[in-house]
Amino acid sequence: MPESKLFDDEFMNRLNYLNIVSKHMIPGHLHGEHRAKKKTDSGIEFADYRQYVSGEDTKNVDWRTFLRLDKLVLRMFEEDADLPIYIFFDCSKSMDHGDPSKYDFARKIAAALAYIGLLNHDRVSLVGFADGIAQEMSARKGKTQIWRAFNFLESVEAGGETSMLKAFRNFFSARRRRGLVVVVSDFLDETGWDKAFDMLRFYKQDLFAVHVYTTDEEHPDLPDEVLLEDAESGNTERIKVTPGLLDAYAEVFAEHCEEVNAYCRKNGYGYVRCDTELPFEDLILRVFRQGRFLG
Amino acid sequence: MSFLSLSPAMAGLLLAATAASVVVLYWLKPPPKRVVVPSNLLWNRLLREKKKKTFLDRLRWWISLLIAIAIGLSVATALGRPELGSGDNEIRDITVVIDNSATMATRSSDGYTRWEHAVNEARELLQQGSAGGRFLIVDTAGQAPPTEASDRGSALEVLEGLNVSLGGESQFPMLAASDGELYFVSDGVMVDDVPPEAIIVSVFEAADNVGITAFEIRSVPVSPLEYQAFLEVTNASPGPKDVSIRISGSGGGRLGEDITLQPGESQGRTINLSSFDRGPVRVAVTSDADAFVADDYAFSFLPVRNRTVVVLVSPGSIYLESLLLIEPRVAVDFKTPQEYAAGVPADVYIFDRWAPPTPPPGPALLFLPPDVSWLVPTLEIVESPEVMGWNAAHTLLQFVSLEDLRVDRAARISPLASTDGSADLADIIVGSPSLPLIVATENPEKVLRVSFALEESNFPLQPGFPIFISNALSWMMDEQVALTSVPGRVEVPLAAATVVDLEGNEMVTWTVADRTVFVADEPGLYTAARGTRRLRVAVNLADRERSAVNATSFGAGVQAASISQPLGAAQPAGWGDELWILLLTIATLLVIVEWFTYHRRLTV
Q: Do residues A76 and A152 both lie within one domain?
């Protein structure tokens, strides 16, 4: 792989470190076991019993139990299944803000999660979205696909407005397997991020929302009178900055974050807020602690 | 409210311009800074909620503008030096004549001088006037500049610039007729002729004073090489006083005497100074609770007392020979022109109708000298010249009258046509520039040239001739008793001289005609020098009138100032007097408020 600015050696070392740490965090996380196991009537590993229903194949009837209890029960087995992981990262213009920029931070998060997923033999899809799907890397499996994923992430440029709903509609209108949808975004979506999440709920996808923002975005340092220009639309708003206004803005920002968090909590989805000034390792470990990726 | 520095129209214009400038500056605020944010989504949501609060935002702007205008108006108003009216609408013009004669330096029982009380009273009188009135401060010593009545601030400035004048004449000034009120603040001691319309404010309080009313050093008439001092001490106190007199001089000479003086009594002393060396002599008197210091000490100068060796070179002059023989200070050596040889040692050389071809090694007195290279040539011989005038103030003519001087024949010389460029040092003692009869020069030795022969005039027959010769010898030996003067403006008969006091501090001087003038604020011995010539001036109060600090002419009916009120605890000026201070304080507070609220985004 050519020398990369975004995913340099230091970043790779961090990922390796995170991979090792993640295995210690979740006992039994070895050999690429999957979180979703399907109970079938064939397989090697016994999982459970269930009541026999008339008309079913009798090859899995446990006759020993029938003789002992005089009941027909079927033996069920677990079958390993790979987990589709759809990683959506926001590449709208609003993400190209801050130092370090939210966009670079989001891509690093996406890269880290893709790395973990591929190491766990999951099928990882990477989707850059803005006003719809900007670029997409189709599902990949196996750790050999890691460099491809990194190359893809580096190739996507930030730009355009945000419409998460349009992106999800485009993506999931094609038949997709149920899996884990990771959305890395600032959720500053005029069309409504909640509508987009409703669509995921409709498709019965699991969701993990990573909310990226900068400290400057949470507590802006503005002069007394300022012309605010929207990075995406170019619209301007002239305001007179007062301590009260800044406090009110901080409240609105907190409300915005809490709304996303509340939606996820209500629907059993994962949610993590991350300031771009947070150490990257801490952030990923917080994601792991949510328990959705590992174990 | 009125303004001390500005007319009402100017003040209004200044305030309007200030307010307009502040408002314009507010409108000319720089355009807002453009800041790119990721999204206006949250800001729009916030501003929708805040729309109802825009009135408060507008109020903030107005509050900020009003604070800025208030700051500007406060500073502008303070520049106009405003004052509040005294309450009555009547315009009062006030003239205050303040006495700054010597006795005003007398200290009162509260520790402050009569002068300090007088200034306080004058200030109070000025403050009592109406805001729009006109005020004038005049003093009895002529220190105040001759101005017309103006605003109170200018009058107060004049008042602050005045001080006690120990010397000089004090008199009630001539004032233009006015309808205003006339006050005279004084102790009533030295100023008479107070007009009846003047309202007298007395700062008199009886005080103790023992002072030196005379002090002079003179040679003993019967023995000119010896000097003695005459001292007079006067008790001007209401009661008897024990007085200690101490005289000190160069060479460690000291004399002392303790005496008792009854009220009004003066005692004179003649003091033998034989134990004193050449140099300054200081006398001081001390007594208990003395309230007037300026007359407690006096100075003079004791000259040298060596016998002067004089060489008289003359073909024969009965007048000079006779006079020099009886002059006790002189050891005379008579020589004819043939006997004179350059290098004859002497303190003074006198050449009568003859002059050597080269200058003598010391000071010289010449009578009708012939033309030689080192003297100004004779232009012509004038028959029966008229004596046009003489410099009576010059040391050489001290106690010499020339009223009856007649000259038969005189040489006309031009003192400006000096051969060596030293004409600027020529001093015409007798005669006019067109016909100088006696001329003194110093280059570098002193030369006194008389342009006529004694035998061709009646000068030797004048009573002042011996005195003139004595003065000439003293002048040429540069040892004279000190000139005397009172404190104040002192004139020295020496042009463009530098003047130093006893400590060597150089005084500020200026030249008026052929004199040097300086101001001596207090008694002392001053030395004026130009080239090798030195004159000493003993500046002493030494005046019975000035020492009589209790000789007030004010009767019992005179309005007395509140002497008992301690000046040190004087009340601070009211805001009505110094309104500009209040305004600047307000402006400062408003700046602090604006700074505080601005940094907390309470104002814009």
A: no
